[in-house]
Amino acid sequence: MEQQPLFDLSEYESQPQLGDDYSDPLSAELGAADAAAVREALGGLEIKLPRTCQGVEYTRLVELVGNHLADRLVEKFAGEELYINKNCYPRANDKHLQIYYRFRELKASNPAHKALQLAALEFKLSERWVRSILFRIEHGGL
Asked: How many other C-beta atoms can be found within 10 angstroms of the C-beta atom of residue 34?
């Protein structure tokens, strides 16, 4: 016999879930285009959003992201502390694959350590970071 829920779950079931065409909560709540604009302005920061569309904190948020996005952020996340990630995952994965394929091209005509140095210079990254990207791709995780 299946137990019935204590309250109506239909409201929660209709909301987008993280597995549904969204890579993160910001995209799930704001949509991909607005989330990308917020990441462009605030990426890498942890911010506490104002509770209302008034006050000094709200004015500063408007200066950074504009009226429309500030209103949407306060509407969806009022009073919450959010970490805004810098990269959207697909874009980062594409860059990592570019680095991997370029390294392979360079390795065809150079020793591995020289190819690593050249790839790091070309993409303006440290050799250690390029090595980390290559390791993750070769071991199944972008």
From this structure: 17
1, amino acid identity? M
CB atoms within 10 A of CB 47: 17
Tell me which DSSP letter residue 50 carries: P
| Contact status, residue 125 vs residue 117, Cβ threshold 8 Å | no
pTM over 0.85: no
The Cβ-side half-sphere exposure at 26, using a 13 Å CA radius, reads 23
Cα 110 to the chain's mean position, in Å? Answer: 34
Residues 87 and 17: their CA atoms lie apart, in Å, by 20
Q: Which of 35, 13, 15, 14 is nearest to 24 (CA)?
A: 35
pLDDT in tens, 87-109: 655 556 778 888 988 999 999 99
Whose CA is closest to 82, among 20, 23, 25, 15? 25
Distance, in Å, from the CA atom of 104 to the CA atom of 97, rounded to the nearest integer, reads: 11
